[in-house]
User: Fold NADH-FMN oxidoreductase RutF, flavin reductase (DIM6/NTAB) family from Paractinoplanes atraurantiacus.
Amino acid sequence: MCTDYQGNTVIAEQFKAAFRRYPTGVAVISAIGPYGPVGLTASSVASVSVDPPALSFSAMGTRSALALLEAESFVVNLLGPASADVARHFASSGGPRFTEEQGWTFLPTGEPALRHALASLRATPLHRLPVGDSTVVVASVHEVFLGPAGGRLVYHDRQFVEAQGESH
Assistant:
């Protein structure tokens, strides 16, 4: 069992291995930072409440994450298989970001949104909770933009994978 989380590299490696085995949905969270648009790929997005609408995600201390955590509002773009390349580019530094070819547009409120996302949710932070090297954000959802339906993109074993199978 995991009983010691401070400095125990064995448990840390086992923890990472456990979550590599667990497939999750994929999102790109985008905002306007002090020097322009910023974004990051997240596999930690979860619904928190329907009434009022709220979601959560966690962000680690990258430059993009720090700018996003300071933003007054952001967009959580829930991705389908058509956005796998966008997810890859936003998961690492140096790749193309916010290009017209990727399908970005800007909402009237200023945040970047991905046109072909399954859904884009404009939100504002309610709580920011530092936990280790990450920050958990709980956010209030103000607008939902539904994009084209179809397909599933999951993050599993360090890869973005189009999920197959029937819905039940």
